[in-house]
């Protein structure tokens, strides 16, 4: 196995159109969250530990809410998303 193929890097695509206030948000390419969830759903059920199933309709927690693009992308992929953001 090649060492580069084992790296946990998922390339994304440039956004098709700019987001409102996009210059103030972190630069997160499109397609990363959906590719990650598809990769995790392809694993055997117990590969990542008990309760780690990622079927469509499952809940996904975004504990930081750094980019709204991630939450929207996960929701469009068919997952229920819970975003927890604490900004004092």
Contiguous uncertain segments of 5+ residues:
none
Strand order of the largest sheet: 1-2
What is the CA–CA distance across the termini? 46 Å
Number of helices: 2
What fraction, in percent, of the residue positions are helical? 10-25%
The mean pLDDT is 79
Beta-strand share of residues: 5-15%
Q: If you compute it from the alpha carbons, what radius of gyration comes out, rounded to the nearest whole angstrom? A: 15 Å
Quickly give the structural class. Answer: alpha+beta
Categorize the overall geometry: globular
Main pleated-sheet profile:
2 strands, parallel
Q: How many strands? A: 2
- Multimerization state: single chain
Overview of the molecule:
- With 88 residues, the protein is of the alpha+beta class.
- It is 22% helix and 9% strand.
- The chain has two helices and two strands.
- Strands 1-2 form a two-stranded parallel ribbon.
- The longest helix has 10 residues, at 32-41.
């Amino acid at each position: 196995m090649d060492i580069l193929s084992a790296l946990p890097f998922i390339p994304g695509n440039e956004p098709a159109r700019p987001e409102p206030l996009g210059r103030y948000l972190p630069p997160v390419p499109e397609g990363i969250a959906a590719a990650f969830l598809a990769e995790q759903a392809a694993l055997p059920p117990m590969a990542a530990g008990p309760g780690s199933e990622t079927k469509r309709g499952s809940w996904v927690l975004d504990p930081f809410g750094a980019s709204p693009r991630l939450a929207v992308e996960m929701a469009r992929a068919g997952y229920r998303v819970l975003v927890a953001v604490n900004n004092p």
